[in-house]
Design a protein that fits this description.
about 400 residues; alpha+beta; 2 domains; 10 helices; 5 strands; histidine kinase; EC 2.7.13.3; protein dimerization activity
């Protein structure tokens, strides 16, 4: 089955009809490109100009869908028109075919056509002057350039502008896509940061509340219940205060600042005292100098989460918290007796180790947690300067 020709664009139909009607008007009033005694005109009948006119108008229907075919047929048609008295409308439509072949044709055709038409223009200028030895021969070159090279060069310029605009549009879309990806990643990173802060700030207090409330409910001793309720109240108040600070960050909108009272290593003693009040036998050993604020926050949160895990999982015995600064890194190590309980003393989400590992990784440090003989050891190495972890 023969392939059907593509449907012409509506603008091409308008151009074809306009060229055909213009040529009919010129033919009707008797305006031709050449006089009857012109030696190149082999057919003097006026109606002969209508045949190239109609064919050229038909080529205009293919200017966008089949530009190469339209240009080839149009070139043959223009040659045939030169054998008649000629129609200006046929010549004008041919220039449009040259323009369309460069604009809508393949990239190779768009490069070749301006060079070919330029070469034809040069030949049409030099050859008549050399053959006739008269300056009037330049008019033939000028006319040839106006019909062939000028529309080809115009099409090349327009095509370059169109391709440049398309490239800029694609670049803008890619930039917008990258910006959206960056925004999504920033939102995800901010959510992860908030999740770590929420877990580290609240989990310690809620674990203590769960453990002491269990003791108050299971032991029928008024003094034990009062002591448990006092610890529960203290942890509830502290947890509520930290929750309010975190909510303040969420409402801030900028999302680029830490809580109003960012924990520091100076607060480790208070943190350890709270763990002791919750029933842990904690020994604190610190040896460090001035530490950057991000490292201080990460070390504090790692110790806090380790004590929370020890409160929930560790067996009886001493919990040791040791911080030591060596060269350009801060070593954080927390050890606790390895527990043998069938279930933890308080429920957990299992996100504590993940959060500690993320905090160390964000600073370019290392993190490890696991059983070390009879102990459960948590160790983090936090660089004090960029690149110091290696």
């Amino acid at each position: 089955m023969a392939a059907r020709l593509p449907r012409p664009h509506r603008d091409d139909v308008r151009i074809a009809l306009g060229g055909l009607l213009g040529g009919l008007v010129l033919w009707g009033v008797g305006l031709y490109s050449r006089t009857p005694d012109d030696p190149i005109s082999l057919v003097d009948a006026g109606w002969a100009v209508l045949v190239p006119l109609v064919v050229m108008a038909g080529c205009e229907l293919l200017r966008r869908t089949r530009p190469r075919t339209a240009l080839i047929i149009g070139t043959l048609t223009l040659t045939a028109d030169q054998l008649t008295r000629g129609s200006l409308a046929t010549v004008v439509m041919f220039t449009d075919l040259v323009y369309a072949a460069v604009l809508y044709g393949s990239a190779g055709a768009a490069r070749r056509i301006p060079w070919i038409t330029g070469l034809i223009t040069v030949i049409a200028t030099v050859w008549p002057v050399a053959a006739w030895q008269k300056p009037e021969g330049l008019l033939i070159g000028a006319f040839t350039g106006l019909v062939t090279f000028t529309p080809a060069a115009t099409g090349w310029i327009v095509r370059n502008h169109r391709d440049t605009a398309a490239a800029e549009r694609l670049r803008a879309e890619q930039t917008a896509l990258l910006a959206e990806m960056d925004r999504t990643q920033a939102v995800a990173a901010e959510r992860a940061r908030m999740a770590r802060e929420l877990h580290d700030m609240v989990a310690n207090h809620l674990s203590a509340i769960a453990i002491h409330s269990t003791a108050a409910l299971s032991i029928d001793d008024p003094k034990t219940s009062r002591d448990a309720l006092a610890v529960i109240r203290e942890n509830s108040v502290d947890g509520l205060a930290e929750m309010r600070r975190l909510i303040g960050i969420l409402r801030d909108g900028s999302g680029d600042r830490e809580p109003a009272a960012t924990p520091t290593l100076d607060g480790l003693a208070t943190l350890v005292d709270g763990a002791r009040a919750n029933g842990l036998d904690v020994h604190l050993d610190t040896d460090h100098g001035q530490v950057p604020a991000p490292v201080e926050l990460a070390a504090y949160r790692i110790v806090q989460e380790s004590l929370t895990n020890a409160l929930k999982h560790a067996g009886p015995g001493r919990v040791t918290v040791a911080l030591a600064q060596r060269e350009s890194v801060l070593d954080v190590r927390v050890t606790s007796p390895y527990g043998h309980r069938g279930a933890p003393r308080a429920p957990g989400s299992g996100a504590g180790l993940v959060g500690m590992r993320e905090r160390a990784a964000l600073l370019g440090g290392t993190f490890a947690a696991g059983r070390d003989g009879a102990l459960w050891a948590v160790r983090a190495t936090l660089p004090l300067t960029e690149g110091a972890a290696a």
